[in-house]
Amino acid sequence: NMPMDTVERAIKRGAGGEEGSHLEEVFYEGYGPGGVAILIRALTDNRNRTANEIKHIFSRMDGSLAEKGAVAWQFEMKGHILGEITGLSPDELFEFALKYGADDVQFEDSSFEIITDPKDFQTIREALSSLSGIHIQSSDITYLPKNTVPLEGETAERVLRLVSALEDLDDVQEVYANFDIPAETMLQVAAKT
């Protein structure tokens, strides 16, 4: 039979009312195989535990944890909208997106990708959602690499396994990396895991 104060503390902790149980956002930075820069966003109630878990995965999978600031400068926060064109020409979508302040618009077959400044993201997303002839698949504010590192073969596989292992950690919310890996390689690796 547990003492009442222990039960109450457990309930408070579960409800986030206990001191020391609050979650904080922490960024970790590191390098993977092939010199790939990796930025990790975590939510944790114990920085030491999370740092140790991340460090363990990096060392086990040919990567290394880096000093704060070593990697972050290689990424910038951007609005990112992905979708499909269903009844509009790429030119029409391009002009529409630029009119609302998009930084960049890329097309591949019937897919599109729009990059925005975070402050314009909401306006552009709302404007796009009122537009018929397109279907938005995902939209969020994310960290995009300023430059990418092309990878293939075994190095690409090692990087993808490292990123996947980091994403599997409970505290890790997002993993951003600056690799450019061919779609075929990514599918091959996905099939193996």
Mean pLDDT over the full residue set: 88
Number of strands: 10
Low-confidence stretches: none
Main sheet, how many strands, which sense, barrel?
4 strands, antiparallel
DSSP helical segment count: 6
Strand content: 25-35%
Shape: globular
SSE order in H/E notation? Answer: HEEHEEHEEHEEHEEH
Alpha-beta content class: alpha+beta
The neighbouring-strand order within the major sheet is 3-1-2-9
Helix content: 25-40%
Rg over C-alpha atoms, rounded to the nearest angstrom: 21 Å
What distance lies between the first and last C-alpha atoms, to the nearest angstrom?
Answer: 45 Å
Task: Explain how this protein is built.
The chain is of the alpha+beta class. Helices cover 37% and strands 32% of the residues. The protein has six helices and ten strands; from the N terminus they run H-E-E-H-E-E-H-E-E-H-E-E-H-E-E-H. It is globular, with a radius of gyration of 21 Å.
Write the layout of secondary structure elements.
Elements: H1 4-14, E1 24-31, E2 37-44, H2 47-60, E3 64-65, E4 75-85, H3 90-99, E5 104-108, E6 111-116, H4 118-129, E7 134-145, E8 149-150, H5 153-167, E9 172-177, E10 179-180, H6 183-192
Parallel strand pairs: 8-10
Antiparallel strand pairs: 1-2, 1-3, 2-9, 4-6, 4-7, 5-6
Q: How do you describe this structure in short?
A:
This protein is α+β, with helices and mostly antiparallel strands and 193 residues long. The protein is built from six helices and ten strands. The strands form three sheets. Strands 3-1-2-9 form a four-stranded antiparallel β-sheet, covered by helices on one side.
